[in-house]
Amino acid sequence: MTKKVLIIGLGVTGFSCIKFFIKQGIIPYVMDSRTNPPFIKKIPSSVKYCVGYLNKDWILTASLIVISPGISLFHPLLKDAAKKGIKIIGDIELFYNSTKTPIIAITGTNGKSTVTNMIGKIINNYYSAGIGGNIGCPVLDLLSNFQNFYIIELSSFQLETVKKFKPFISVILNISSDHMDRYPLGIKQYQETKLKIYKNSSICIYNANDFLTYPNNLQIHQQYISFGINKGKYQLYKNQNNNYLKINNDIILNFNHTKLLGTHNYVNALAVLAIADILHIPRKISLKYICNYELNNHTLQIIHRKNGVIWINDSKSTNVNSTKAALNFLGKDKRIWLLLGGYDKNCEFHLLKKYLMNNKIHIYCFGLASKKIMSLYPKAILVRTMADAIKNISKLLKYGDIVLLSPACSSIDQFKNFKDRGIKFIELVKQNN
Fold it and tell me: Where are any strands of DSSP class E within 29-115?
């Protein structure tokens, strides 16, 4: 019997899966519930596809189903397929089964892109490393070039479908409420999905300040390394106005002398150094790159200064904890005009209460989450779009003010993604200044 491979989802991940199977001499079937998915015009003529709905017959007669991260395993048709014993995996499992190269896997609610990029720069100065996953390049597209290591950023959606995936090093930076629309059983279900990254890993790195990241079912063959604020092997030690990187009671670096911004990024750097040390990269190299690392666009990115007013693009803040980190960094004393809203994923906006009750923070909200925000914070000003918020705010600014786009929500109700939202924010700020 011929193996019938079905790929569900025709975005960047689904298209990488099509190319992967064709290289193996297998012509897959493809489907997408969207009527006009992004890669529809790139499908080879030999591949049968179905768009606009999920084809029940194809799903229940498949030998193997490969789903993209946006497709939930909880979909009724996929549950029926699983009951029939049909194997359902994602591209991460395919990738792992196709390489012997050691994998460094990084996840967390916040900070995973920063850590992936930072450790990537360090490793590529000493070895060679392919970087992909939830960030940039789909993992299957990395297989064409030889590397000493693969550095893979993983979302909880990608971890849902891993089974035998066995990273050399796995890291969970933090876990807080996010994607609750995807996890009906709440944060415990989300946490259990994240913890799958540790299951077969040789070395597990966890956050000593965050019990949700602690590995469970400890295994003898695994090594455990911790980092945290005043806890763990790799520590952020605060003394007066200084922030130090400390290992085994030895001060290694003063973060105040780096380009990093905010406590959360200092903590991210602890995880980075832990990985680099495991790989025996000379500390001198690691610390040089940590010192000079500049945050990605859309993360606390200062995009404009005029008349004493600072405009900050933090569009990558797609959950409440990320917005809390931004407000923590900026402090309590400045007048902040906060742009909040989008698609909220059933997130817990009440966790922002202690920050938003500050009279110096003025909230403008937009998008699908705006009604929920208004119900919690009646002083917030409701606008239809981010453009409307910027027009209104621009007329009220005074010297020393900060305008902060840190939405605490995903962007998919009004934008393509967080990058698109950030780019539009930059364009609008320039138009209004």
Answer: 29-32, 49-51, 64-67, 87-89, 103-107
- In words, the CATH class of domain 5-89 is alpha beta
Annotated catalytic residue: which of 110, 117, 179, 362?
Answer: 179
DSSP letters, 158-189, are HHTT-SS---SEEEE----S--TTT-TT-HHH
CATH top-level class for 94-292?
Answer: alpha beta
Distance (Å) of CA 248 to CA 226, 232, 252: 12, 9, 10
Which residue among the candidates 55, 110, 117, 134 is catalytic per the annotation? 134
For the chain, the domains span 5-89, 94-292, 301-431
Per-residue pLDDT of the chain (433 residues; tens, 9 = 90+): 457 999 999 999 999 999 999 999 999 999 999 999 888 999 999 999 999 999 999 999 999 999 998 888 889 999 999 999 999 999 999 999 999 999 999 999 888 989 999 999 999 999 999 999 988 799 999 998 889 999 999 999 999 999 999 999 999 999 986 666 677 778 899 899 999 999 999 999 999 999 999 998 767 678 999 999 999 999 999 887 889 999 988 999 999 889 887 888 999 999 999 999 999 999 999 999 999 998 777 888 888 888 889 999 999 888 888 898 888 878 777 899 999 998 877 777 888 888 888 778 999 999 888 888 888 888 899 999 999 999 999 999 999 899 999 999 888 888 888 899 999 999 999 888 7
In the annotation, is 112 catalytic? yes
Phi and psi at residue 4, to the nearest 5°: -100, 110
Q: How far is residue 341 from each of residues 30, 331, 348, 362, 367, measured CA to CA in Å?
A: 34, 21, 12, 14, 6
Q: What is the number of alpha carbons within 13 Å of residue 13 lying toward its C-beta? A: 25
Neighbours of 153 (CB within 10 A): 24
CATH 1.10.10.10 fits 301-431, yes or no: no
242-249 long-range contacts, CB within 8 A, separation 24+: 245/269, 245/270, 245/273, 247/273
The residue type at 406:
S
Of these residues, 55, 110, 112, 424, which one is catalytic? Answer: 112
Query: Is 216 designated active site?
Result: no
Place of tokens 């970087």: 131
Q: Per the confidence metrics, is the pTM higher than 0.85?
A: no
The Cα–Cα gap between 269 and 113 comes to 12
Whether 179 is a known active-site residue: answer yes
CA 90, CA 17: separation in Å to the nearest integer? 9
What is the Cα–Cα distance from 113 to 266, expressed in whole angstroms? 14
